[in-house]
Amino acid sequence: MSANTDLATGSNGYGYYVVNGNKLAFASQIGFSQTIPRNGDVIGILLDLEELTLTYFHNGHNLGTAFGKIPINQDAIKYYPAIACYEIGCSVSMIKTIT
């Protein structure tokens, strides 16, 4: 999830680095999960604007809340999902679900 075009240096960027299980925010990585996805796995993201949290899922299993106290300001911040691939042949399918 990113509110800034540069997740690595932005003040409002949040991410899950699936290569090593780290979470990324404010230009730093912190250990988050020991579950490393493989081909065909499903990664879910829940941005809860009532609780102000960002939670990740792996094949439906809750990995836990990665970030809390997410800043929101109805007029100033918009969040956009972002996915990056670093390998030839990588593919991603995005599915929007509402609970």
From TrEMBL:
Superkingdom of origin: Eukaryota
Domain B30.2/SPRY, first and last residues per copy: 1-99
Protein's UniProt name: B30.2/SPRY domain-containing protein
